[in-house]
Amino acid sequence: MIELKDLVKTYRDVHAVKGINLKVPPGEFFGFLGPNGAGKTTTIKMLVGLLKPTSGSVVIGGYDVSKEPLRAKSIFGYIPDRPFIYEKLTGREYLMFIAKLYGVDMKVAEERADEFLSFFDLMDAENALIEGYSHGMKQKLIISAALLHEPKVLIVDEPMVGLDPKGARQVKQLFTDLCRRGAAVFMSTHSLGIAQAMCHRIGIIQKGEVIALGSMEELRRMAKKDQEHLELEDIFLELTGDTNLERLGVSMEHPAA
């Protein structure tokens, strides 16, 4: 469903992404992790067509994102980490606007908007201007808009930002249900607990290269710590070499109070 082929992005002398090869099949929840500056956001921007690869390709649902952008974009939803939203529209107007962009039948769009507004407890605010929404309400609206056309692929960058515990649980439920219906979900996040709980496989990128890829069991073996209950945080720090906190004056055995 998602395929990255020898994907490269270079900015003059900076190699942001260095030849990534990756496949995410239908029905898989894939986690994409990495330290700050590792190349996650650059990769995602190439995935959704906001950046053109220096070389290589991104294929979604059989469509090359660079060569057939409209066909590719028609089958995926995108939730960015810093979404732009038209705040002078009401919540319902915004959903209808997005539905028209995707060519969704208006009757179907109204029904699905009702479902999402009700699910996220936004019915009381559906006719209020978005500029008056809280950050969490805006995030729920963005997520609703990304799912309105029932995408076969969902690409997500830090989806839980600004959500309260109930909202975060609702979003987890939505994403899990989407995978069960056969969609592929590609999620980048710094929330390692969420990634561990939800993802079938996880890829870890560092300095533009995927340094580890697999299930939790496979990642444990890569970290040479094949313990059944080892957490993703420990694996991540081991594989990325970020366990040496002593250089910052912090002891791992005796953390500062």
UniProtKB/TrEMBL annotation:
SUPFAM superfamilies the UniProt entry points to: P-loop containing nucleoside triphosphate hydrolases (SSF52540)
Domain of life per record: Bacteria
Residue stretches making up the ABC transporter domain: 2-232
Keyword Magnesium found: no
InterPro entries listed in its UniProt record: AAA+_ATPase, ABC_transporter-like_ATP-bd, ABC_transporter-like_CS, ABC_Transporter_VariousFunc, P-loop_NTPase
Keywords, in A-Z order: ATP-binding, Nucleotide-binding, Transport
GO molecular function terms listed in the Swiss-Prot or TrEMBL record: ATP binding; ATP hydrolysis activity
SMART domains listed in its UniProt record: AAA
UniProt xrefs under PANTHER family: ABC TRANSPORTER ATP-BINDING PROTEIN ALBC-RELATED
Protein name in the entry: Putative ABC transporter ATP-binding protein
